[in-house]
Amino acid sequence: MAMSQRTEKKPDSLQQPLGGAMTALLESGVPGLYGPVSISPLPGGRSNPTFLLDAATGRYVLRSRPAGNPSPWAHRIDREVRVLTALEGSDIPVPPVLLHVADPSHFGEPFYLMPLIDGAAEEDPALPALSPRQRISAYEQAIDILARLHRLSPGAIGLTGFGSPGDYNRRQLSRWSEQVAADGNAPPALLELGSLLSRVLPPQSRTSIVHGDYRFGNMLFADGRVTAVLDWELSTLGDPFADLAYFLLAFDLPHDSPILPGLAGRSRSGSGIPAPAALIERYCRTTGAVLPVAWRAYRAFALYRTAAIAHGVLHRNAAGAIAPDLFHHLDTIAEAGLRHLGGGPTP
User: Fold this and answer.
1) Segment-wise mean pLDDT, segments of 10 residues, the chain, 347 residues
2) What's the rounded Cα separation, in Å, for the pair 213 and 218?
3) φ, ψ for residue 177, nearest 5 deg
4) Geometric angle at alpha carbon 115, from 138 and 128, rounded to 5°
5) Which own/partner contact pairs does 71-74 have at CB distance under 8 Å and 24+ positions apart?
6) Got the DSSP string for 88-131?
7) Interior angle at CA 336, CA 319 and CA 259, nearest 5
8) Are 316 and 279 in contact (CB under 8 A)?
9) Which end of the chain is more exposed for a tag (fewer CB within 10 A), N or C?
10) pLDDT score, position 344
11) What's the pLDDT at 108?
């Protein structure tokens, strides 16, 4: 979700005036906000629609549940609001929640409002717009923020009981394995990877706040620093090593992957991008944690979860007939997970 105050003014065809009742609701709920207000879609909000609001007194971002969402448990805007509110004032850079409206009658779905944060997101983990020195800084900042997040006491910031109880790793593996089985037509490597993980993925031994989708595409950068971590829809209390492994996912994904762009197959010589081992060492030094013996299983599970989610989305969008090239990409991701479990080279 690239939310930037440097964003150029939207074409008039994309901007629409916000209705009077909705404008009045925002004016009454957000000090300093006054109309008229126009609204336009913001790209990159993933599964929760995100909009740019241009008011007479400033610019804001509105994030809502998708229209017509049939499940009360999916796209939980209230969960995002809870974790963002809890993290406000901490050393985790997050946008403040200015207004949360649970009543869907105003906008068609529950929503929340936040200020437009200066910065832009970069989906490509190669960070092509940055210099080698800036890339080093970007990766180190990202790891340091993740380490600080995992050091926070959930109870101290009001997140006791945030998410489902029980073993996060087993719960996640069971959820996505059931989804893969229900969808059918999965690559054989993905099925094999899920079966192996059911035997070797370790139980959760530490509990922390986890982001669930921690990557550069969900961070804003401005003037060489991370100004915000966004998209907390998948956050919960879980295993911090799963979060760390997911951030390192980019080193396993092919650079041309349509699922998520990666670094595999690219030369990193002279790029400034730190090696995964250096990032892991920095994380462990900051958190005081010791990398688990079964660390390779965490790396493999990050790949399995990514492929399983992508398989479900592609399967549903294509009515079960996934295009051969996309099927191949899913297979490639699963094969990378099998290499971790097989003791092959680990980037």
Assistant:
1) 44 76 95 94 76 95 79 71 96 96 90 95 94 96 98 95 88 93 88 96 94 96 94 94 97 92 92 96 97 96 95 77 83 95 73
2) 8
3) -65, -40
4) 25
5) none
6) TTSSS--PPP-EEE--TTTTSS-EEEEEPPS-B--S-TT-TTS-
7) 40
8) no
9) C
10) 61
11) 86
State CA 331 to chain mean position distance: 22
Name the nearest CA neighbour of 39 among 47, 31, 50. Answer: 50
The residue with tokens 């919960």 is 236
Cβ atoms of residues 294 and 201 within 8 Å: yes
Is there a contact between 55 and 37 (Cβ–Cβ < 8 Å)?
yes
3-state secondary structure string across 22-45:
HHHHHHHHCCCCCCCEEEEECCCC
Q: Residue count of the chain, please give it.
A: 347
* Domains present along the chain, CATH in parentheses: 16-115 (3.30.200.20), 132-341 (3.90.1200.10)
Owner of token pair 């900042």: 141
Is 252 in a helix, a strand, or coil? Answer: coil
Give CA–CA dist 281/179, Å, rounded.
34
pTM: 0.91
Token pair listed for 278:
């250096």
